[in-house]
Amino acid sequence: MASRRFLQSFRESGRRRNSLVAVPFALIALVTVVDIVSPPDVHLGPFLVAAPAVAATFTGPRMTAFVGAVAVLAQSLVAVGRTEVSDLNHTYQIVALILISAFVTFFAHLRERNEQAVTQLRSVAEAAQRVVLRPLPVRSGPLRIASVYLAAEAEAQIGGDLYAAARTSDGTRLIIGDVRGKGLSAIGEAASVLGAFHALSRQESRLQDLVAHLEVSVTPDQNFAVHDGGGRGDDEDLAESFVTAAVLDIPDAAAELHLVSCGHPPPLLLRAGEAIPLLVRVPAPPLGLTHLLVTEHTAETFTFGVGDTLLLYTDGVIESRDRSGIFYPLRERAASRCGQAPEPLLQSLCADLVRHAGGRLGDDAALVAIERLPAPG
Question: Which of these, 44, 114, 200, 340, has the minimum number of CB atoms within 10 Å of its CB?
Answer without folding.
Answer: 114
